[in-house]
Amino acid sequence: MVEIQIKYGDSEIPYEIPEKNLWEIVKTKNEPVGVSDEPREIERAIRNPIGSPRLAEIVKAGATVVITQDDHTRGTPGYLMIPPLLNTLNAAEISDENITLIFACGTHRAVKREEQKKLVGEEVLERIKCVSHDCDAPDLVKMGTTSRKTEVKINKIAAHADCIITTGKVGYHYYAGFTGGRKGILPGISGRSTINQNHAFLIDDEAVTGKLLDNPIHEDMVEGAKMTKARFMLNIVQNTKKKLLRAFAGDLYSAHPEAAQYNDSLYRVKVKGLADIVLVGAGYPKDIDLYQAYKAIDNAQMIVRPGGVIVAALECREGHGHQVFHGWARKYRTYEELEAQVKSNFVMGGHKAYYIAKVLQKAKIILVSKMTPKEVKDIFQLEPVRSVDDGMEMAHAEVGRDAKVTFIPNGTITLPAL
């Protein structure tokens, strides 16, 4: 037997897989342990920007500045990144009173006070104004229209600022290619209609995980970001233990691709082939709700054989996570119905129901979670179980006792590649 640990919420679930069944564990070889001095690495990146002058040379004394920060669904350590940015701005004669931090929520809910404290620290909350972006705010400002006809509307505070600095964490994203960079603007601080228009391109074959070149969603995001005062970026890449590996700062359109390439060099992992069963976990906050946790299912579906089974251990402490997602899953019961809706009437959130239905065309999904079995089964058409043991037992009953099992420990971080 081979004992594994499956990340689930804030804990880990121990499980044993018979050696004869365990085909492979998808993880990066020789993963870096992280830098010894994280603040020093952040300072190094800020002092040595990629493709741009230093931050102090970009902003003018007395300017108004907006800093975007990932929301509670990402867990990006703003407490590590924001203070050195503030100190750099202060040294350039920009006072804290002229700086606003916007939690780039996109269409997500506002960030709660305790979550803000965890993300950026008490010092930042006391030093500068911190607000959550509201994609439905009545005072969004239109910046222009992209070549793909996306009307770009953004947060009023950001629209009127002299400079926007985006911060974030770079990793894989299942249709934007990678997180970070331009996502601090679109979807981060954009209006709901802007996000809907941009994300409607997800049906394009080029809108896939780990791809920026010719990805219409990425390219549309970049166009939108260029209409704003986004002048500087600070992004990080972390390892699977959430330790800082490298920081990237500078021009949004030069530094972000470098960060994405670095991440890809570490976490795109070649696999043997398609497995009968793929067991996947993610851990908090990646599995905060089903809406966010789907990313782990998406990576798992890449390497499960047609007719196989995905066993997804995803806590989903906040349930389904998105009303439109839930509503579409309840209303449209077939893949064909959902595909038609995505093409003709795209609404942010509904796309996730479409993705799940698409995976179900290929494989059964067994979900280990805290969601009610009735919701999991009746609404989302997944198989609900309360333990990994029960899930794997159900999976083996489906595909046999000799099934080849692949385990993905970090379902949203590692990208399996055939």
What labels would you give this structure?
25% strand, 418 residues, six-stranded mixed β-sheet, 15 helices, 2-enoyl-CoA Hydratase, Chain A, domain 1, alpha/beta, six-stranded parallel β-sheet, Rossmann fold
Which percent range describes the beta-strand content? 25-35%
Kindly report the oligomeric state of this protein.
single chain
| CATH C-level of the largest domain | Alpha Beta
For the biggest sheet, the summary is: 6 strands, parallel
Q: How far apart lie the N and C ends?
A: 26 Å
Indicate the overall shape.
globular
Strand line-up of the largest beta sheet: 3-19-15-16-17-18
Secondary-structure class: alpha/beta
Label the CATH architecture of the largest domain: 3-Layer(aba) Sandwich
The total count of helices amounts to: 15
Instruction: Give the helix level as a range of percent.
Output: 25-40%
